[in-house]
Amino acid sequence: MIPSDDRRNTAAGSFQRGNNQERETAKSMVAKAWMFDPAQVPEAEAKYRHLLQEVEVANLRQSHDKVWPTFANGPHKGQNVKDLVTKMERGDVKPEDLTPLVAIRDDHGTMTVVFGNRRLTALKLLERSSGAHVKVRCIVWDVLEAPAPLAAKLVLSKSSQNGGEHAEIKRPSSKGPKGR
Fold first, then answer.
1. pTM of the entire predicted model
2. How confident is the model at residue 177 (pLDDT cuts 50, 70, 90)?
3. Measured distance CA(121)–CA(98) in Å, rounded
């Protein structure tokens, strides 16, 4: 096992800057990251219950600049992100009942979502439309304790150009990933 300081330096530092071999190592680790996502593995919520927190949506950062318009996993699979916003506005769905997001908290306390960027997009849209502060359940890993596959996924998939404040919903196209 890699000591936590070395893991952080390897996952967060060299993967981002890294050479091709390091990037390939990170990509192979990312292939295992799905195991930590309760939308893909419902048992993950119970397994990581000790990390579950209720977090204000305003304190969460998107890791993606853009998200696909439909959910790929979980109870909302195949549904449109904006439809979830409408259901929450009507009270048919409550934010606290959503599948928990998965985030990594850095040394400065900033929490960036690794899994759940579409849900977070819907929640941020709800917050904007309602003017209310919204909270959501989130499995929060500290950067030094995050499993290497999660850290690698964050580093390799982070595309936000606005500090993670929001993500744009992509326009559907025939070139998009299957089911999205």
1. 0.82
2. low
3. 13
Dist. CA 161–CA 167, nearest whole Å: 9
For range 151-180, the mean pLDDT: 73
Structure confidence by residue, pLDDT tens digits, 88-98? 999 999 999 99
Strands (E), the chain: 52-56, 60-61, 66-67, 101-105, 111-115, 135-142, 168-169
Gap between the Cα atoms of 166 and 60, Å rounded? 10
CA-to-CA distance for 149 and 22, rounded, in angstroms?
A: 13
Q: CA-CA distances (angstroms) from residue 3 to 72, 135, 145?
A: 34, 33, 10
What number of other Cβ atoms are within 10 A of residue 116's Cβ? 28
Contacts of 129 (CB under 8 A, 6+ apart): 85, 89
List, for residues 115-135, the tens digit of each pLDDT value. Answer: 999 999 999 999 999 999 999
pLDDT of residue 28: 79
Cβ neighbours for 15, distance < 8 A, ≥ 6 positions apart: 22, 23, 25, 26, 152, 155, 156
